[in-house]
Design a protein that fits this description.
Structural class: alpha/beta
Number of strands: 9
Order of helices and strands: EHEHEHEHEHEEEHEHHHHHH
Shape: elongated
Strand order of the largest sheet: 3-2-1-4-5-6
Helix content: 40-55%
Bound molecules: NADP nicotinamide-adenine-dinucleotide phosphate
Strand content: 5-15%
CATH superfamily of the largest domain: NAD(P)-binding Rossmann-like Domain
Distance between the termini: 37 Å
Largest sheet: 6 strands, parallel
CATH class of the largest domain: Alpha Beta
Number of domains: 2
Number of helices: 12
Oligomer: single chain
CATH architecture of the largest domain: 3-Layer(aba) Sandwich
CATH topology of the largest domain: Rossmann fold
C-alpha cells in the first residue's frame, strides 16, 4: 500500500466537521494510518467508539497529540486559544497543525504565536456544513464538490501547505489559498450575515404576541421555514464566530442595513422599478449558484 499522507491524524473536537473527516480517513487508509479523536467530554468520545469512526480516543488534548504528524482543530473557535496552549508543549517537531474554524484572522492570532518552532501551521476552512452537530451528524460526502479555503500566513512551509491541500482534495474538496483577512470578509457576507439575519428574524417572530406567533408556525412554509433551518445551528459555535469575525461582520451588517433602508424607502414611495430590480438581481445570483453547482 502507498505511504499514507499522515501517520497519526489527531482530531481535536469531533462534531459535524471533525467526525466527517474521521469517517473519510477511516475509510481511505491512505489518508492517515491512525485516527485519534479528542473532545471535551467522555460521552462524545464513547459515542465515537460506538460509531467506529476513530482508531483511538483520548480525553486529554495534551496526550492526544503525542506522536502526531497532523493535528486538526475542529472545536468552536472560541476554544482554540486554550486548546493551543494545552497542546503546544507536546507537539513533535515537523507536526502540521491545521484547523477547520469559520474565522481565520482570529485563529492565526490565537493559535499561531503559541506553536513552537518547527511546528507548521496551516489554517483552513471547509465551506461545507449543515445545521446539525455532534459525532452522529458527520457523513462521508460532506465536503464533496465544496470549496475549502486555506489561509497560511506568509512564510508558511510550502510542503506543509501542500499536504493539507492534498488532505482536502482526498476529502473531495476544491481548494483556494487566500489571505485570512480576505477569507473573513467573504464568509461574513456568504455565511455569517445570513446566520445573523436568521437568528434575528426568528427572534422577531418569537417576540410577536401569542396569536400571531401561532400563525407564523402554521404558515411557515411561505419563507420563514428556510430561516429556521439556518437558525437551528449550534449556539456556542455561532456565538464564537460572531465574536471572532467582529469587524467584517459589522461592516457587512452596516452595508446590509443601508440597503434594507433603501428597500424600505422604495416600498414606502411605491418605487416598483427599484423593488423588481433587486428581485431580478437575487434571481440572477441564484442562477449563477446553480450553474456553479453550489446550490
Ligand atoms: P460541533 O458539531 O458542535 O462539534 C464540536 C466538537 O468540538 C464536539 O466534539 C465538542 O465536544 C468539541 N469541543 C467543544 N469544545 C471543546 C473544547 N473546549 N475542547 C475540545 N473539544 C471541544 O461543531 P462543528 O459544526 O463540527 O464545528 C467545528 C468547527 O468547524 C467550528 O470551529 C466551526 O466554526 C467550524 N465549521 C463549522 C461548519 C458548520 O456548518 N457546522 C462549517 C465549517 C466550519 P463535546 O461534544 O464533547 O463538547
Amino acid at each position: 500500500m502507498a505511504e499514507p499522507l499522515f501517520r497519526r491524524l489527531v482530531l481535536i473536537g469531533i462534531g459535524l466537521i471533525g467526525s466527517s473527516v474521521a469517517r473519510i480517513a477511516m475509510q481511505d487508509r491512505t489518508l492517515a494510518a491512525e485516527v485519534v479523536a479528542n473532545a471535551r467530554t467522555q460521552a462524545t468520545l464513547d459515542r465515537v467508539m460506538e460509531l467506529g469512526i476513530a482508531d483511538r480516543i483520548e480525553l486529554d488534548p495534551a496526550k492526544a497529540v503525542l506522536g502526531a504528524d497532523c493535528v486538526m482543530l475542529c472545536a468552536p473557535v472560541g476554544a482554540y486559544a486554550a486548546l493551543a496552549e494545552a497542546i503546544a508543549p507536546h507537539l513533535a517537531p515537523g507536526c502540521i497543525v491545521t484547523d477547520v474554524g469559520s474565522t481565520k484572522q482570529s485563529v492565526i492570532r490565537d493559535v499561531g504565536p503559541l506553536l513552537p518552532a518547527g511546528v507548521h501551521f496551516v489554517p483552513g476552512h471547509p465551506m461545507a456544513g449543515t445545521e446539525y452537530s455532534g459525532p452522529d451528524s458527520g457523513f462521508l460526502t460532506l465536503f464533496q464538490g465544496r470549496w475549502c479555503m486555506l489561509t497560511p500566513p506568509p512564510g508558511t512551509d510550502e510542503a506543509a501547505v501542500a499536504k493539507i491541500h492534498e488532505l482536502w482534495t482526498r476529502c473531495g474538496s476544491m481548494i483556494e489559498v487566500v489571505e485570512a483577512a480576505h477569507h473573513d470578509r467573504v464568509v461574513a457576507i456568504v455565511s455569517h450575515l445570513p446566520h445573523l439575519l436568521a437568528f434575528t428574524i426568528c427572534g422577531t417572530a418569537d417576540d410577536l404576541e401569542d396569536e400571531s406567533r401561532q400563525q407564523v408556525l402554521k404558515f411557515a412554509a411561505a419563507g420563514f421555514r428556510d430561516f429556521t433551518r439556518i437558525a437551528a445551528s449550534d449556539p456556542v459555535m455561532w456565538r464564537d464566530i460572531f465574536l471572532n469575525n467582529r469587524e467584517a461582520l459589522l461592516e457587512m451588517l452596516a452595508r446590509f442595513t443601508e440597503d434594507a433602508q433603501a428597500m424600505a424607502r422604495a416600498v414606502r414611495w411605491g418605487d416598483g422599478d427599484y423593488i423588481s430590480d433587486k428581485i431580478l438581481r437575487g434571481r440572477a445570483i441564484r442562477r449563477s449558484l446553480i450553474e456553479l453547482k453550489q446550490a
